[in-house]
Amino acid sequence: MHDNAQQQGATASNADILIIGGGAAGIGLAASLLKRQPGLAITLIEPSDTHYYQPAWTLVGGGAYDVGSTARPMAQVMPKGVQWLQAAVQGIDADGQRVTLADGRHVGYRQLVVCPGLRLAWEQIEGLEQTLGQHGVTSNYRYDLAPYTWQLVQQLRQGKALFTQPGMPIKCAGAPQKALYLSCDYWRRSGVLKHIDVEFNLAGPALFGVATYVPALMKYIEKYRAQLAFGSQLVKVDGPAKTAWFESLDANGARVRQAKPFDLLHVVPPQVAPDCVRESRLANAGGWCEVDPGTLQHVRYANVFGLGDVCSTSNAKTAAAARKQIVVVAENLLALRAGRALPLRYDGYGSCPLTVEKGRVVLAEFGYGGKLLPSFPWDSTVARRSAWWLKASFLPWFYWNGMLKGREWLTRCSAAE
Ligand code: FAD
Predict the structure, then answer these.
(1) Of 60, 111, 329, 369, which has the most beta carbons under 10 Å away?
(2) Cβ distance 311 to 346 under 8 Å?
């Protein structure tokens, strides 16, 4: 595959089923398809030689998980029988049924599944990239920085800690506040929380998108004496000066900028669709892969499906969502090949285990329209030890040994009406 790499425009291959992205969604889907039909010819395009279990990075930032255990060689998780093309997709020509790789080669396809996740747009915050990982500026959204969060949390004994959340959509919308809770819990247990001013700056108007969970979360915000600043968006950072700038609207609707000093700044960056999707005819106005929210089939190109964080759907962008979407796409894609009607509908399920303290989790599970979809017969607004065990022990194990191997546990979804 690498021989022709320099030949601009050469055809690398023609794929029967082509998957873009070997993350939670892409690897899980390839495994699920092969479980159904072991002989399928699947090509998967993925540039990275490492696969990450991102949901545990919150725990790493809270000193509750080993960062090394969140990464495995891509070759190890690639399902047997899948042809892995280690390259990045640069363009998608949905009319011509082919993609262009970063080195200029083309790959044709019969059916395409688009799942390259989303892109963290660090560059949208002035000064941020130069200072990340130094001067007390960190983010659990990167493998290399989550351990720095934990280092900073342990070092801080007094001062000002700022946590930020950008506008939606973002992956794991609860992750910005999970960082706050686990940090505060550590400071509280160490007896220094009373010396630390904690502030959560959210670009949006609510603590959490599903109102049912807000009272339970507010109890922890109050317990940790954290200030909430709604409608406050991080726009600029000066690490050496330990100052962050936030924009908000004043009473007259005019944009105002406020400087806030910090000792610790946990940043969650704005998040956008990858360029290869945003610039293609697969994109909606916002750049996301425009699929039917039920079937996950592209609304204009019947031989294209979308899966995972890149989708235009309004579900919570989580690995838990991908777990259920995989089954829908696998069944629907195979039905389409066989000339049958698409049999399954995705209900918008997503899950956000909110780590409100070390040892307890509020397990938020919900679908389209904020409908609660609990997996367990309990009051899901209560912070539980069993849910912490699920988050910190069971789910990581299940991810590597279940979801990425095509074992479809906890994935019930609706049949078409
Ligand atoms: P990803 O897993 O991000 O994979 C995308 C893949 O596509 C990557 O391997 C990338 O290299 C590849 N790619 C990118 N561009 C291209 C290209 N041009 N060509 C080819 N390949 C490309 N989810 C939960 O369920 N529960 C949680 O508690 C949770 N917590 C989280 C906490 C944090 C801090 C973070 C960062 C995420 C969390 N998530 C959580 C979200 C979860 O990790 C994602 O929703 C999930 O990984 C989405 O899967 P995906 O395959 O769509 O994207």
Answers:
(1) 329
(2) no
How many alpha carbons lie under 13 Å from residue 91 in its C-beta half-sphere? 10
232 and 286 housed in the same domain: no
CATH number of the domain that 200 lies in? 3.50.50.60
Residues marked active site are found at 172, 352
8 A C-beta contact, residue 63 and residue 153: yes
Q: pTM above the 0.90 mark?
A: yes
Specify the residue for token string 């092969």: 34
Verify that 253 and 321 share a domain, yes or no: no
Ligand 1 atom with the smallest distance to the CA of 23 is 4
**CB–CB of 175/58 below 8 Å?**
yes
H or E element in which residue 108 lies? strand 106-114
In DSSP terms, 199 is beta-bridged to 162, 227
Residue 376 resides in a domain: no
Within 6 A (CB) of ligand 1 lie 20-26, 45-48, 54-55, 57-58, 88-89, 115-117, 140-141, 171-172, 175, 274, 276, 308-309, 317-320, 322, 351, 353
∠ CA(404), CA(409), CA(414), 5° rounding? 115
